[in-house]
Each structure stands twice: as structure tokens, then as C-alpha cells.
Hints:
Layout: E1 2-5, E2 16-19, E3 29-38, H1 41-48, E4 64-72, E5 84-88, E6 97-101, E7 105-107, H2 114-121, H3 123-134, E8 142-145, H4 151-162, E9 166-170, H5 174-183, E10 187-189, H6 194-201, E11 207-212, H7 216-223, E12 226-234, H8 248-253, E13 256-259, H9 262-268, H10 270-285, E14 293-298, H11 302-310, E15 317-321
Parallel strand pairs: 8-9, 8-11, 9-10, 11-12, 12-13, 14-15
Antiparallel strand pairs: 1-2, 3-4, 3-6, 3-15, 4-5, 5-7
Amino acid sequence: MKAIVVNNYGPIDKIAYADWPEPEAKGNQVVIEAEAIGVNFPDGLLVQGLYQMKPELPFVPGMEVAGKVIAVGPEVKSLKVGDRVASLSTHGSYAERVAVPEPAAMKLPNGMDAGHACALICGYGTSHYALKQRAKIKPGETLCVLGASGLTGIAAIQIGKAMGATVIGVASTEEKRQIAKEAGADIVLGYEDLRDRLKEATGGKGVDVAFDPVGGEAFDALSRSMGWGGRLLVIGFASGTIPKFPVNLALVKGFSVVGVFWGAFTAKEPKVYAENMSELIEWYRAGKVKPVIEGTYPLADAAKILKRVIGRGASGKLILKP
């Protein structure tokens, strides 16, 4: 079969579309024939050797896959050939077929789009965990979302609205701000003079919850825009700059800086993760959340698509298809 193979850590251009051994359904594993493969920002970091973990070389990247079960191992209990599932893993999904442990495969509701299923796993899963478990956001609070036209940003807007928040979306261009508005943001802003504009938008009160996957100068503006008792969620650093935080701001403004490492959460709290995914699927079925799929591209184009994601050139979810 064909897969995207990383033979050496380095530039994204060096990943290969190449032959890879067929997976087997051993023990409690199932083999999934991919209908959709999700592309995520950490995938681009992983192939460059810049992520928190480094798989043994060579390896196949990719965290998300959705498709049909075509083989089951002898220890599989609840899934069968023909079931449609979505799966999360640390890597291995950029392939025509992939073997995953049964507990990692989530059965999909009838008719659910495979691309939407991929988006709900990492992108929406991260935003949901951030707002529900880490921020404990409450109805009526003000949520500020940076990177509001990206996958996690759109997810944070929709989830924030589902949880009763007033949402301020921040994006770099008018086109991206329109995407944030269509996702449900009550107010949309650019990054220019962000501190002053947030002060105006909140009537001087400040932001209750800030969702920051960007870092850099935008984090600095947010840290000076937090309300009393606020929670500033550190999601990632898409700007490429990890900011230095003056801790006296947290002291005098009475807010918390809260780290959000969704990957570790899924491993350390699998039961809560499963409950979160069940809630997201129910919200999806009820129309409260709806992933924006920017486009679906051939698996062979993975390098080009990953470079767009790393360069912050994507709006919504990008999907690869064998």
C-alpha cells in the first residue's frame, strides 16, 4: 500500500509518498481503510523533529483517520468488518490502511461525514477540553479566540457558543474575520491595537477566558486584557514565538495562565476523553457544532498541505484522501 513516510527528521519537503507494509489485525487491533485523513499542525512539527515526541525512524505521520473496518483481530469484542469508525493515534494515519487498537476506534453514527469525524477528534477535541475542563467556562462569560479562522479557532467559537459564552474572534484578514463571524463569533477583531480593542469590546471589564493557539505578540496583548478571575489558555505557538510571561500581571490582575496539552489528556484521562467525544458527537448531531472543511486533497500531496498548515495558510480543516 501507499503511505507518507518519514525516513529522516527534517524539512517537510523531504517526506515521501512511498510503499509501506500492509497492516495486520493482531490481538485487539482493527484495520481501517481510510476514507479521510485529518491534517493537524502537530503533524508538521512531528516530521521536522520539533514535536514533544520523536517516533523511531522510519515512520508514518498522522493522528486522525476515519473509514471502514476491513479486518478485526481475534481479541476484538465490539467492532466488526464493515463498521465505520474514526481513530486517534500519535502517528501512523497518513496511509491507505492503518491498524489501531479497538479502544482507539470510535464508532461513527450512520451517515456521518468522514472528514467531519476527523475534525471532531483533534481540532474540536482540543477546544472542547480547553473550554470545559481547563477553563470551566460559564454561561455569560466573555471568550476571546485568537486564530479564529483556523480549525481549533472555529471549534472554540462554536463550542463557546454552545456553552453560553459571548465570543470575540480575532483573525488577521477581513476574509478570515468573515469566517469567524460565520462560525458564530459575536464580535470579530484584527490583531492591530488588540489590547485597546478588547478593552472597548468588554466595556473595560476584560476577558474572562482567552483561547490562544498563536503566542508571540498576541499573547502579550491578551495577558494585559484579562479580567479578574480570568483564565488564559495556552494552546500552542503558531506564530513561531514562545512568549515570555511577566508573572506580576497574573498577580495584580488576578487571572490564571492555564496550559492545554490535549494529547497528554487523552492518554492520562481516557474515560473523560471518551465522554467529551460523546458530547461533541451529540452536539454535531444537534447542529450545535459543524466543522468547516476547507478542502480534500490526495494523500500524495501531504507535503504541500502540511506546509500550508504550518504556515498558517489554512482556514478550517484540511483532509487527505487516498
